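Hi there. Long-time user, first ticket. I'm pasting a complex I've been working with (about 660 residues overall). I'd like to know whether the download I got is complete or cut off, because the file seemed smaller than I expected. Thanks.
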Amino acid sequence: MRTLIFRTMAPYLTSLMVLFSVFVLLRGHNEPGGGFIGGLIAASAFAIYGIACGVSPVRRALYFHPMGISGFGLLIASLAGAMSIFSGVPFMTGLWAEVSVLGVTVDLSTPLVFDIGVYLVVLGSLTSIALALEEREED
Amino acid sequence: MAAEQGKTVDLSVAMILDPVPAADWLVIAPVALPLIFGAVLLMLRHRTATQPRVAIAALAALFAVDLGLLIHVWTGGPVVMTMGRWLPPFGISFVADMLGATLVVTAGLVALVCGIFSIGTVNDIGRRYGFYAFMMLMVAGVNGSFLTGDIFNLYVWFEVFLISSFGLIILGSGRRQIDGATKYAILNLVATTLFLIATGYLYGIFGTLNMADIARKAPELRETAPLMTLATLYLVAFGMKAAAFPLNFWLPASYHTPRIVVAALFAGLLTKVGIYALLRTLVMLFPPERSVLSGLIIWLAIGTMLIGIFGALAQNDIRRVLGFVVVSGIGSMLAGIGLGSEVGLAGAIVYAVHSMLVMTALYLLAGQMRRAGGSYSLSDLAGLYRSHPMMAAIALFLVLAAAGLPPGSGLWPKVMLVQASLADGIWWLALAILVTGLLTTLALGRVFVLAFWRVKEAAERTGSEIATTASAQTAVLILCIPVAVMGVWPEPFIAAAQTAVAGLLDPATYAGAVFPVEAVQ
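Hi, the file is complete. Here it is re-exported in full:
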């Protein structure tokens, strides 16, 4: 699989796909998309990078262990649910805050944090599986 | 967001607008806490020295929260929290009634003790494979199953603890472990698939998944809807989970393969979730269907008790003996469900609590015996009485407790079950319970006599003895305390079980807690 063309193209393809996955993640609240599908796209981006350039560059690029990323995702998703304890509403209630950044109003919410958590869980666990499978092939 | 369009929306039709008292968070904390700490432990996967400290602190906090929940339920009746502020049945409700709270506390204690036991017994490899993370997530799943008030959500929690248990059972990836895990995984997946099919069918009939809602609607639908099919499907699915005869063979085939502390956790928690789910569905949701199935359940119970204990008599490996004793205990709990009377069901619940404590303690003790005697095999173990008198005392106590003899905790649930079956005139069930008690005494007594009393020949050295650790001994001792208390002073346990049964037989309080508005009307 390691042709010159693929190896040259893979980093660009990966960065595009990761960018697109973040776009899909963020548009997910009201339109098709969301953390799960975004995480899948990001995981396939890293899988492509792994196929083209080998597993160790991917691990270096990710810096954190994929399982650690997964754990972090699970952590912020559960904490996003627990945030509602401070407002006297039940677990997992969506809380919204409007923040004005440079004159643009941005809706920040706990569902968004939850979705980012899902994104990281899917990204971490699937990348972990993909990298393990790709590594096995190299033996 | 609808308000932006200039319409006035009455939110009270869809949402809970009253502020939630902080104490209600006790319902969700037993699930959220282990989930959060499971995630933290996953991130700390390579810090093998830090992991046990974090895990045990978390489990201790969890046990404290569980106790708080039990006290709250004991004093104030069922506690409900519906997720995301949506009104039930649209929001997923978490309901802690006496049954759920009692089992959550017991599960919390079992998990804490297994955490303490694991300090000296789970090595760096196991920790790096994620023992503590999996354990936390499994506890979250088990607690979620005990507390959820939504039957599809119950399925989700089943999956959560099942997948974590897959992780635990193959920890270390030994050849035998993969073999045990395959049997365990396939049989459990078949059972959960059946559960899912039954739940889809139930949703088609009722149009709701909220258990309180189902309990309210069942009487109206009984004339037309195939509730009998549903009840039977649930019986098969949960019976398989609980390792009831004739679907019990996966348990003894897999529980001896993982690390001993994992087996102890499984024996303490997993099969009892099946029994809990049977109590919830058959007794609370479909009581008339349960009474039709009652004869069948009683025969299944007798089969489970006897097959289990005969299996235990035939084994040579302590862990396999214990696996069969677990199965046999499931039979006793099923007997209570089959009887369906107040005393019988209370007996089943007390038995479940007893079995969670004693079976975990016995598995942990087997781990200690392996360390002291160098083997799990009864042909190699000998002379432990002379070298470890303290362990022998604990072992004798636990064997008596498991066999249902005083001063342990096993006596009272058996008395209740025998009393209930005689009250219903089902003398053969009473006989089977008593015979099983006798055979359990024989099976576990055989282990005790061979491992502790048999004189060890000088030449008979297995050479793989390891010093027992203080943390592991403490763990077994901690579990002996509630077992002893339950044996000497069973009244609070029986009272809790009776409250739980009253809640199951008359789900009005449960439904009233979930739907407070309509209860007022």
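A couple of notes from our side: Chain B has one domain: 20-456+466-520. Chain B has a mean pLDDT of 90.
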